[in-house]
Design goal:
With 214 residues, this protein is α+β, with helices and mostly antiparallel strands. It is 32% helix and 14% strand.
Length: 214
């Protein structure tokens, strides 16, 4: 993968094309910085909705230098339909990924070097990337550089909503064992996790896909 192949959504955050299919996948789960751009729209989700979301996962601004959990950069407690609503606001072709797409993204991003995030941030700085996208990547390159899985939040992150034919959406990811109650998850081997608690679950987020034009 090279930074030049990335596609930017309307918020200026990058998606990387997946090998062999006409789909690009978001480099990262949905960030609060992106949602705040949606929130500012006349028909956005509303301040009350966002305030409720922050009760499940507080906000860490991408400009902040304080030490804090990187998970607070991202929107979690998200319901599948809310992720789809955000995707609809982004424009035609944006949606939740299916199982095969998420797994392909997991393999592709896991095989990159953590240094690739720095290269991508540098590229975005000169090619229309939002300052928040650049800032988040630069922060994660400092705080989560042990592996690409960690840096791109495929490890010690969230369960990310994916669509399943004929079934309710489920979550793929490798959250820390502390957050899963000791359960070890392997999204390449196991089926998506379904939330059984009902309502919002701060363990769930989303990483959107984009259907590339033919």
């Amino acid at each position: 993968m090279v930074p030049e192949d990335c596609v930017l959504d309307r918020t200026g955050f990058p998606y990387v094309p997946l090998p062999g299919i006409r789909t690009a996948i978001a480099i990262l789960p949905i960030t609060k910085a992106q949602v705040e751009l949606w929130l500012a729209e006349p028909h956005g989700p509303g301040d009350e909705w966002y305030a409720e979301m922050l009760t499940h996962n507080p906000r860490l601004g991408w400009r902040e230098t304080r030490t804090g959990p990187d998970t607070e950069l991202f929107l979690s407690g998200l319901l599948p339909q809310e992720a789809e609503n955000f995707a609809h606001w982004l424009g035609a072709g944006y949606r939740l990924p299916n199982l095969a797409e998420w797994r392909a993204a997991d393999r592709a991003l896991s095989q990159t070097s953590p240094k690739w995030a720095v290269q991508l941030a540098d590229y975005l700085a000169g090619h229309g990337g939002h300052p928040a996208a650049i800032g988040v990547l630069q922060r994660l390159a400092r705080t989560r550089s042990a592996s690409s899985q960690s840096l791109f939040f495929l490890q010690d992150g969230f369960l990310e909503w994916v669509t399943k034919p004929g079934n309710a959406p489920g979550g793929f990811g490798r959250p820390s064992e502390k957050r899963t109650g000791g359960m070890i998850l392997d999204p390449q081997a196991f089926d998506p996790v379904v939330s059984i608690r009902g309502g919002r679950n701060p363990l769930f987020s989303a990483r959107l896909a984009y259907s590339l034009p033919t």
